[in-house]
Amino acid sequence: MSLDSHDADAPAHVDLDVTSTQSWQALAAHQPHVYAMHLREVFAVDPARGRELLVDVGDLHIDYSKHRVLRETLELLFSLAREVGVEDKRDAMFAGVHINTSEDRAVLHTALRLPADAELVVDGQDVVAAVHAVLRAMGQFTDRLRSGEWTGFTGKAITDVVNIGIGGSDLGPDMVYRALRHYADGPRCHFVSNVDPADIVATLAGLDAETTLFIIASKTFTTLETLTNAAAARTWLWDELDATGNADAVAKHFVAVSTNAEKVSEFGIDTANMFGFWDWVGGRYSVDSAIGLSVMAAVGKEGFAEFLDGFHIVDEHFRTEPLETNAPVILALIGLWYNNFWDVGSRAVLPYSNDMMRFAAYLQQLTMESNGKSVGMYGHHEITDTGEVFWGEPGTNGQHAFYQLLHQGTRMIPSDFIGFARPTDDLPVTADGQGSMHDLLMSNYFAQSKVLAFGKTADEIAAEGVDPHVVAHKVMPGNRPSTSILAPKLTPSVIGQLIALYEHQVFVAGAVWGINPFDQWGVELGKTQAKELLGVITEESAPGPQGDSSTDELVRWYRGERGR
Ligand code: F6P
User: Fold this and answer.
1) How do strand 60-63 and strand 188-192 relate by DSSP bridges?
2) Which of 38, 65, 478, 549 would be a feasible disulfide site paired with 49, CB 3.0-4.6 Å?
3) Where are the beta strands (DSSP E) in 127-253?
4) What is the ipTM metric for this complex?
5) Where is this region: Disordered (predicted)?
6) What is the whole-number distance in angstroms between the Cα of residue 131 and the centre of ligand 1?
7) CA distances to 86, 167, 314, 335, 388 from 339, in Å
8) Could you tell which of 100, 109, 169 is best to mutate to test the pocket of ligand 1, judged by most ligand atoms within 8 Å of the CB?
């Protein structure tokens, strides 16, 4: 069934203008009251909030007390979510309703992590059986790879896997592989995405073709960057093995992950070595599908199963928990509160874990390709501001880069701090012997959110005897909100839990805004224009009119300088 505003079954709220709801109006009226309060005052009048504005889901311990929300604010936000039908929309997603209206597709990444004994039939397909059949095939293949049974063209075992993909076919596996460094006991993995040849050239430079396997990961198998890099990899392999045109060499060194068997076959990859998924898995929601094949190769099928279990824990929480205690709902609504009522459009994501160095990059696609929309689900333009900007870097590196602006800048940027009780690596601190390097890292984690929230006043600074003309420069205004997310350890399950926590926040925000987070039409025009311009920048004849003098002039300059 497709969810159409004209369907008899469609809920009444599908076309609702969220800004006209009672809760929205009430939140707008309430905002100046909260705006006028400093977090110091908020904690003074509600001292229990640090012990109560918490939610535990799976291994995640989430504190949202350092936000500029009162308990009344939260109630209004939950009313808003109810008024726009977030619960019905959530249920529709889990049930396989075609909530991706512009592409008439179900949105079922949650089915990728259902246990084998679950039941879900959508559009006549036994989804759970299909998912587990692919997982089994992935398991058999990665077992052979990891044990050395799968050999390359010259009979040697595979030591290195290169995943060639971009966007959702790269960011997820790359981020998770790095995050699970400590669990990786299979072949080394590398990730090539950019059509800039520097990417593949630098990656292949250290590799031996006899022991390298390529995973060509592309949902559509039409993506320019991926197909170009795949062809370059094939040429490199043939050259290195002195086997140009040899189909057996390709069969032994290339596998594919895709929904498009025809194109995979056209490239020369045996579809027996293709791992499939379905149009109801969006690219940016696909790391837990066969797109995660490189991760499974690295950590094994058991580790991958733990990763999927992590997602499922948060899925079940999101699906069943009342809004008031539902972590993705709470965090999404707080993000929306700032986005729409405070004119604050960005959120910093700050993992205190070097192994999570690609997490912010991963979230950028997940959140911004999903909710960067300016028309409503049914094509109407009367929508409010959407699409929080997500960005960040691991702590403590970020502290020495952009935290100055977080602490004393004129913009308020809410932050998500992510940290772990037990380290993946640790070393003693030799300078004063107090604690370990991990404790040092985590003392910074706790200090930063504390200082952001509570700051330091001019009086406190002056009392320390600071030169009066410097006092103003040293004032730490505080009143800057953050979420603190803690987990015992960065494990396969925990990284799955964290991803699902953000996936569902994206869903809730999109549901309140009344947009479709599951299409991405905005990336298409650039692709077609690049194809047209390729001819213009490489042909000797003068560039044809491009319709604007700026592009024409830039192209003319480039052609003069490109030197061929
Ligand atoms: O251009 C955007 C996009 O379509 C993303 O949504 C997707 O993750 C990426 O390109 C890669 O697409 P594919 O997996 O089909 O190669």
Assistant:
1) unpaired
2) 65
3) 160-164, 188-192, 212-217
4) 0.98
5) 539-564
6) 21
7) 18, 25, 24, 6, 7
8) 169
